Amino acid sequence: MTKISKEILKKYHLKPNQYRKDHSVLIVSGQNGKYVIKDKKSNHDIYRYLKARNFDYYPPVINSEEDECEITEYVEEVNMPEEQKLMDMISLLSLLHNKTTYYKEVSVDEFKKIYEDLDNNIRYLFSYYQDTISIIESKKYMSPSEYFLARNISEIFSAITYSKQQLDKWYQLVESKRRIRYVVLHNNLELDHFIENEQPYFISWNKAKIDSPVFDLYKLYRKIGDRFDFSILLDEYEKKYPLLEEEKNLLIVLLTMPLKIEMNQDIFDECKMITKELEALERVRHMLQEKKPPQTT
């Protein structure tokens, strides 16, 4: 138990008789109940804002914001299949975004900055993979991971090109707009940060911020896309919180933009990274193909 935890126990008269370490948190049990203590300062501004917007799906925080840690009531989780838990989590996410939506007046420069930042990232990826494949192809003997990347580099370049096309399309949609839709992002979504009992809760709010709703969806895909059908989750989300056309385009830009594969690691690790990225791009390609409207004659 950390020193700060000992001080906090005394301050709030918790008097626990049992302690359990669970990853980065301390769970204490006693006559006064069961609590979770984190050695991180609470994001009280977000909690206040969520409460003001009638969103209280987070474990109650019992300590003061002056403390250098966070104490919340412990919520006993009900066991359920991961697929059902994920569907419930995406429903709660749509509610979070719905409850915290507001529109901000912006200048054309704000959209231009978003465009330029993403465009620079895409150009960097294109240059990086060009340089990487040039080095690989100049070698007399390629390693297995280098050969694997060289055989599939066209898939990487195709994704980069498509991402750039979608970014240009997004900018055409927004360059005449003067409002942007913002929500509270949980910004740390994964199954371990969602629990259910009598009602669902998000936990681990320390990375929460205000931004476009697409970033929660994109980061969730990167966390669980290799295990669950993201298309089904996106459909469930949009039943309750439909994305705007420009938001859909921005999400496509992010989803089709490949990650940078570092080719300076163990060969086995490099092969795993290449496989994971190629599979992620293939899943996105398949999802977009399924969602493409049928051609009319």
Secondary structure: elements and pairs:
Blueprint: H1 3-11, E1 16-22, E2 25-30, E3 33-38, H2 44-52, E4 70-73, H3 82-99, E5 102-105, H4 108-137, H5 144-174, E6 179-185, E7 194-196, E8 200-202, E9 209-211, H6 214-224, H7 230-240, H8 245-256, H9 267-291
Antiparallel strand pairs: 1-2, 2-3, 3-4, 5-6, 6-9, 7-8
Helix pairs in contact: 3-7, 4-5, 5-8, 5-9, 6-8
Name the descriptors.
alpha+beta, Phosphorylase Kinase, domain 1, 53% helix, Aminoglycoside 3'-phosphotransferase, Chain: A, domain 2, 4-stranded antiparallel beta sheet, 2 domains, 3-stranded antiparallel beta sheet
Description:
By secondary structure, this protein is α+β, with helices and mostly antiparallel strands. The protein has 2 domains: 14-74, 2-Layer Sandwich (Phosphorylase Kinase, domain 1), CATH 3.30.200.20; 99-291, Aminoglycoside 3'-phosphotransferase, Chain: A, domain 2. It is built from 9 helices and 9 strands. A hairpin with a 2-residue loop joins strand 1 and strand 2 (25-30). The longest helix has 31 residues, at 144-174. The model has no long low-confidence stretch (mean pLDDT 91).
Number of helices: 9
Secondary-structure element series: HEEEHEHEHHEEEEHHHH
Q: How many whole angstroms does the radius of gyration measure?
A: 23 Å
Reported for the largest beta sheet, the result is: 4 strands, antiparallel
The CATH architecture term of the largest domain is: Alpha-Beta Complex
- CATH homologous superfamily assignment of the largest domain: Aminoglycoside phosphotransferase (APH), C-terminal lobe
Helix % is 40-55%
CATH topology of the largest domain: Aminoglycoside 3'-phosphotransferase, Chain: A, domain 2
What does the overall shape look like?
A: globular
Overall SS class: alpha+beta
Strand content range:
5-15%
Give the neighbour order of strands across the main sheet.
1-2-3-4
Number of strands: 9
The first-level CATH class name of the largest domain? Alpha Beta
Which runs of at least 5 residues are low in confidence (pLDDT < 50)?
none
Through-space gap between termini? 69 Å
Number of domains: 2
Overall pLDDT metric: 91
